[in-house]
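Recall that a protein's primary structure is simply its ordered list of amino acids. Everything else, from secondary elements to tertiary packing, is in principle encoded there. The following example makes that idea concrete.
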Amino acid sequence: MQKVAFDVESTGLSRWRGHRPFCISFYFENEESLYFSWHVDPFTRAVTIDRKTKRKIEEILLDPNLHKGGWGVKFDYGMLQHLGIPFKERLNKFWDAMLAFKCLKSNEPAQLKQCAAKYAGISQADEEILRKVVLLARKTAAKKGWAIATTETHPEGSKPYASDFWLCPEECERYNVIDSKRALMMMLLQEPLLKEERALGTYKRELGYAPIVYQKEERGLAVRRKYIVDEIAQLKLKYRKAEKEVLGHAWKGFNVNSHKQVAKLLFDNLGLEPLAYTETGQPATGFKNIQHLKHPCIEALIRHNSYEKSVMAFESYLRNAVWDKEAKCWIVHPNFKQIGADTGRESCNNPNLQNVRNERSVRSSVPINVRAAFKPRPGYVNLHFDYSQVEIWLYAADAEETYMLEALKRGDDIHTATANKIWPAELKAAKDDKSILYQIRTRSKMVNFGISFGAGGQGIKNIHGCTIEEAGKFIQDYFTAFPKLERYMTRTTNEATKRGYIRTMWSRKLIVPEGLAYRGINYRVQGSAAEVLKQAMAKLTWFIQGWGRVKKELREKYSKLIYILRGKDARVILAVHDEIVLEVKKEQCTSKFVAACKTLMEDAEGKVPNIDNKLPVKVEIVRENWGSKEKYAFTGA
């Protein structure tokens, strides 16, 4: 079967805002190429494709005798579908060279031009040539009154000129065809390498997960537009007031957003002592580095930064919201990066929903519930399945730390339990003093997560705001109480040093940069947590919607659940932190349905040792908005 790669160029990045592809190229394994383009109205940017061209493209894309693929196929697939070109196959039937690359080179940026230059020897000169001619063409087009792309019409971080390649058809054709060639060359290199590097299983799992990511983008999340507008107005007043308070301690012309000027104000003018320094040797002014300093200016600065960040978050939701006529509500359609981090975790942007903060997570003297901006679609509820403290579960299980595992299985507060093991005398002396008990628990939490994330004494010092000597003592106390964790850390670090990589519990290969072997534990734990969430989403999708990639043994083990879940109006719409958000039709959200989902998600598939094959999941339900989540109450229904 001959391989062929395809690539499209479009008038923008958002298919929900009317951006459409205006050309497509194919590059075949026999070194033949095809290129098709269609008309772009210069005044409206509307795209018109003629039937003859559309039919030719469909013949290639639907040809069962071709093994089709590309680089970041999700984007091209979505653009072509919104143009009206049908696909008989789901996204997982197309080879995605970008996903394969991240399965092989977890620590390298997945940029097609750079990767093809490095591994296939293809020059990047065409990109710079096209950029120059398009920038000139944009100036001419602007004078004619044509609708050129702007930063206002494009997501943050994008390059608007890249949506105006249609202005230079000859250069665009050359560029587009070379991109398809690049993608094909990478495809041809990858298959044998995936087998050689024992990464083929990881790639197949990611490929099976790709249609779920696409579905999440297409479905999107409902937002409360009026609430967002009102919150922005209120928060702007508050951060301007906080800014005035900061300026009251500074000099004329002071810029509160300048790290350099803030450092000078705090540590030179006000005489405060820096707790940490940047890599360039400058005093650090981030929240974690100044939160323990006592001064009215610090309090005002933290409030200002918190308000400003919240405004930026709300504005990104507002900017990316589109009206859905069918759902009759405002929807945001984020761009999900399936392998967005070196550990395999997913990320997203435009807007970023991986850090949707709530009152408990905002590190500020004035918490702001940003999550209240989101709500279920009309007629639906959102179920939030939370793998609470999944990293600690994986960390303790992998190290065979019995004390921690038993505390977790009992449902104890793990940080209090850890403190009781390390500092029992301090807890006893504190008695009922809530303030001291809170400080000890916070210290325990900081050390638990700090060490599992590979933080040393300096990292603990920065997080906790203590001296380097105190941080060293905390770590020493921790390992004295938990010697298995120290041996686990040493073993994993040595493995990362020797091999240059570690593998997760699902055998995903994660490259550990030279000199950073201490990150080995973090990579293994975070990488395994990423697999837990992705596998859970795959299981839910298969059992509810009947498609996806799930092991035969699992399908047989839970065959009875098919009758409870299959065919329901429900789907995964988001994974945020360690939560999976499931959208369910109100009348179909029964206790049987929720319990079946919970059972599937808690099954660790035999990958995690010492936990009786169960990773506990907490369930919350959202009826009005995400700011009013409540614990799900199971009934006999």
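The two ends are 52 Å apart (CA to CA). Residues 237 and 507 are 51 Å apart (CA to CA).
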